Amino acid sequence: MSDETVTPMMAQYLEIRDRNPGALLFYRMGDFYEMFFQDALNAAEALDIALTKRGFHQGEPIPMCGVPVHAAEGYLLTLIRKGFRVAIAEQLEDPAEAKKRGYKSVVKRDVVRLVTPGTLTEDSLLEARRHNFLAAYSELREEGALAWTDISTGELRVMPCPLSRLGPELARLSPRELLVPDHLETELAELGSEAGAATTPLARASFDSSGAEKRLTALWQVGSLEGFGSFSRAELSAMGGLVDYLHLTQRGNLPLLRAPVKEMAGGTVQIDASTRRNLEITQALSGGREGSLLAAIDRTATAAGARLLERRISSPSRDLTTIRLRHEALAHLLDESRLREDLRDSLRRVPDIDRALSRLALDRGGPRDLAAIRNGLAQALSLSARLSGVPRLLSQAAQGLTGHETLVDQLDQALVAEPPLLARDGGFIAAGYDDELDETRRLRDEGRGVIAGMQAEYAGLAGVPALKIKHNNVLGYFIEVTTTHEEKLRARPDLFIHRQSTASQIRFTTLALNELESKILNAANHALELEKRHYEGLKRAILDLAGPIGVTARALAEIDLCAAFADLAAEGDWVAPVVDDSRAFDIRGGRHPVVERALRRQGGQSFVANDCDLTTGASPAIWMLTGPNMAGKSTFLRQNALIALLAQAGSFVPASSARIGLVSQLFSRVGASDDLARGRSTFMVEMVETAAILNQADDRALVILDEIGRGTATWDGLSIAWATLEHLHDVNRCRALFATHYHEMTQLSARLDGVENATVSVKEWQGEVIFLHEVKRGAADRSYGVQVARLAGLPVSVIERARVILEALESGDRQGKKSTALIDDLPLFRAAPPPTAVTPAAPSQVEARLAEIDPDQLTPIGALSLLYELKALKT
């Protein structure tokens, strides 16, 4: 193109790009998606693909790159993970149609979809066992609300959420994308980033509550939302923002959203982001799933069951009835091992019904999604027959498995066992389902045989065995005889129609032959059109029953999770916890589920179980745990928090017995980390997290705190730890485990009624410390820090110097010296000579005698004599 002129195609590209700011534009050109200008530069770098040029614009070459359409999903996944949004512009007409308007006419194109982190539906772009939530936050008149959906499953939920609660709720949901009003973008972007979500601002009009109500009633085709529940204006606004964004990104082709479910504040255990991180509930501190609680306990057989498991442990219930129903169902399947194994065997053959249904609704599905619905519903019918005489939770789930017999029969008759991925590939409708399709396929696949049969038929009718049916590009199919037999065919003008004569042959046709020719030539396209027509009909039949199918999918997930928890309990010897409305917390023989699993994998090592009893007469109940580092204090703290979480999530627990009064909040401050991005040191992070606990914990909370105050000077740290413990006892009045290396604080148990001392046992042997990992009542006499440092491999000179300093400090303490005077007395801050090398001691008599011995030359009696000799030397 010239420097001054923009071609029609490039003008179209620029116009579409300008209408979709902030997104890379995938511009369909035949079998490729092309990108130009800055989009090409960004995409080439992000995807590591070749950058080329196409023409000129304003005197400069136009950068260009492209990706094949058939491989586009892999490139999309890379771009989304790197923070891009992608607008996909498809060809909306056949290029032949465009040419009818003129030689230089441009094929009509427009964006059919905007791909963003929260709007993915394809299997290749999603993690099968995790939700992909799109969330929206709105605030009206200081009233906040949070709504979220997973368009790949159709789930939609909403809850009241003041701004102060947004961070913990985002941590619970881990959405991929957060929608916010544009005037709140700056304020909320950091919260979204902390939760791992891309923050997308929308205009205020998207969150207008009046407009939102109209959008929502239109979506579900109802006159009022009252049938779904009562929603505040802020909740309507948040849901309206979601739906408006889906209109924008899906270009009007809305996903199959289920009726909204309102979650009430206080229905689940409150767990903030730092606690989730410290306890490694769904993600290990290293960043992956492996090493987390979720990975350790996941025995689910289906993708939907796995997603439900993650929701349950992320949001443990506070409703006693719900918790007990879950435990009752689990106990039944634990006792009925044959039923449990039968259920799990069937569940392993259940596809992901929710996501197949969603793809069909968005017109991104294919024949395999039809088969997934068929196979899933068939397994549901099979499962329902086995769930008789079961507890209430399982019987309710069983009721949702039936009612699909007609649809299953239709799909079973219509579909082959293993259909192709795409409808355009054909071959997915079973033989015998449609006579016309069968005949068309026969013509497509057996055209020569059909012609041969017709040739034999005409040869018999004409009495000419030498009659042939032939084909050429000019006449198509025709009947040919020699001039000798011409009169025999001309004698049947009702059947044979003359077409051409040559010197030696006469050519005829028939109406049936002409019709057959047309059918053969068009058979492939016609067969595909018939299959596509059936695909649309089957898809519509499924979508007409989307509501009941969704109920079945959720019932299957519930049964799967219950059976998985039972399998986990049977494998790990877990017990049913007693969860009640008391303030009890009595764990006998408790174990850490993740550490125990890791030990088993490392050669079958056993985990040392421990008791934890916070059930006291006083309102606060706090164990102050002392003992050396590496003795297992942090493991003990975490395992008790995880046991409480598992119990209220509906699972059995790794213990010999457990009684847990309902926990309202779970707080954890364990481990050391900094936050350099926000200018926070390790100690500042520790103090921020501790402040959040002290400001929020109520008397039903379970708090675990580890080594408060260690990030600052000794006396500062001790005073902070002391004051924190007093606040937990006097103000929060909660149940807590408080680990500290300040063993001086053990004296507080005599002053605070609700505080008891506990310690992790160790044993000293010849100057070395042996960790027993046993927790018992009482206090540690010291911290054993120098011994642990020796185990860590510090140089011997450093260890010896540390011992000298420690003895002097402890001696000064006993003599009542002030710390400053004590430091002045020590050469700690004086110029000291460099450490001298430690001279090894001369070998002892025993060692010298052993050095002279050749064990291979000893006889049995000689070895015995030598043993007596060495014993004499030792004494």
UniProtKB/TrEMBL annotation:
InterPro entries: DNA_mismatch_repair_MutS (IPR005748), DNA_mismatch_repair_MutS-lik_N (IPR007695), DNA_mismatch_repair_MutS/MSH (IPR017261), DNA_mismatch_repair_MutS_C (IPR000432), DNA_mismatch_repair_MutS_clamp (IPR007861), DNA_mismatch_repair_MutS_core (IPR007696), DNA_mismatch_repair_MutS_N (IPR016151), DNA_mismatch_repair_MutS_sf (IPR036187). ATP binds at G627, P628, N629, M630, A631, G632, K633, S634. It comes from Pseudogemmobacter faecipullorum. Transmembrane segments: none annotated. CDD domains: ABC_MutS1. Keywords: ATP-binding, DNA damage, DNA repair, DNA-binding, Nucleotide-binding. SMART domains: MUTSac, MUTSd. The gene is mutS. This is DNA mismatch repair protein MutS. PANTHER family: DNA MISMATCH REPAIR PROTEIN MSH1, MITOCHONDRIAL, DNA MISMATCH REPAIR PROTEIN MUTS FAMILY MEMBER. Belongs to the DNA mismatch repair MutS family.
